[in-house]
Amino acid sequence: MWLGSLAASSSDITLFPYAQQVNEGLGDPFTAEDVYAGVLWGAVQAINAGVTTVADWAHNLGSDADIDANLRALHDSGIRARLYFGGKASAGGDYSRYEAQTRHLQAAHAARRQDDGRIALGLALRGPSMATPAENEYEFALARELGLPISLHAGMAGLPGTVDQLGRQDLLGPDVNYVHANEFTEQEWKQVAESGGTVSATPTVDMTMGLGTHPAVGAALEHGVPVGLGADTVAYGPSDLFAEMRLALAAERSRTNAQPINRGEMPAELRHGHLDMLDLATRGGARVLGFADQVGEIAVGRQADLITLDLSTPHLDSFNNPVLAAFLSAGPRDVDTVIVGGRILKRRGTLTNDLLQRARREVRSSRARIRGRSL
Fold it and tell me: Which residues form a coiled coil (predicted)?
């Protein structure tokens, strides 16, 4: 979410150059004020696009002031979130303070009681690709001591063996969420399924950044692993789950159709459909975040997190299936109303309670500082 202020700041490069260009080149000098502005603007982007709930993979927090700013921005925005604390995951990071900072975050979170449970915590761990086995054991033990769910990046091209390594260290479990998972082996999928782990797929970034040949959606479903859709970084792609649903379906159809097409045949059937992807963007997201008993569907006992779409525009005026029309053609511009926990955050296509104006002032000031430091 801190990358909200850096939207469209990167393209056409792979993961490690991206990390150097964005996370380190632009993110390392962030002040607490920049963190606040980025997270608030990222929340505005999400709410405007009809996203009520986010997994905030917070990995540019080098100080207690940064942590406080990130938490305050989520509270001020009105969005629902799981804040996965990842310290400062760059060359400028100091993981010797990770436990102390985690405990500071817990205390700061406990001191805020006005969010009606909208904000929950977790740990964004480095995992075997970025940390030693001893560091992994320590960080996993910390998460489990504190009862915090875990998220880590895994299964990306060129960085194999994450799940195998965690399995050898006896660190797998139902509290682990794997982001991307594009290149898991069959053995790794079995381990994730047997341990009760979950997967977050981010189709746009997965495919355009070269993290894998296709998103992990189909493989996760085939192995019975809960999977949800995400947008990853708005520095590289859109904050738009409508687009992610469509791309996920196209990528999965391409993957499963490849064999008959390569034989010169037309596929006899098409696997998965728009309702499957809609499920992953709603209930799937709630499942992988541990919010399935709160949000993700309209049901008695769930929180009032709802969006409505304006279906009166020509591109959404369907023959007889408004849900299919929304899946095929809707985007952020069609989101009429956004409600989180019964509170209206967007109405008649406009963000309410001066949120947009306040966030825009913050992000413009922050961007001026960032550009000044980048010259």
Answer: none
pLDDT at 375 over 60: no
Averaged pLDDT for residues 320-334: 96
Instruction: Using alpha carbons, select from 230, 233, 246 the residue that is nearest to residue 179.
Output: 230
pTM reported for the whole predicted model: 0.95
DSSP code of 211?
A: S
Rounded to a whole number of angstroms, the distance between the first and last alpha carbons of the chain is 24
**pLDDT-derived band of residue 114, with 50, 70 and 90 as boundaries?**
low
Structure tokens at 141: 């033990």
Q: What is the pLDDT of residues 169-187, one digit of tens each?
A: 999 999 999 999 999 999 9
The distance between the two most distant Cα atoms of the chain, rounded to a whole number of Å, is: 63
Question: Sheet of 80-85: strands edge to edge?
Answer: 53-58, 80-85, 119-124, 150-154, 176-180, 198-201, 227-229
Instruction: Please state, in angstroms and rounded to a whole number, the distance separating the CA atoms of residues 277 and 323.
Output: 12
Tokens of 208: 């355009």
- Contact (CB, 8 A) for 199 and 226: yes
- Mapped onto helix, strand or coil, the DSSP state of residue 334 is helix
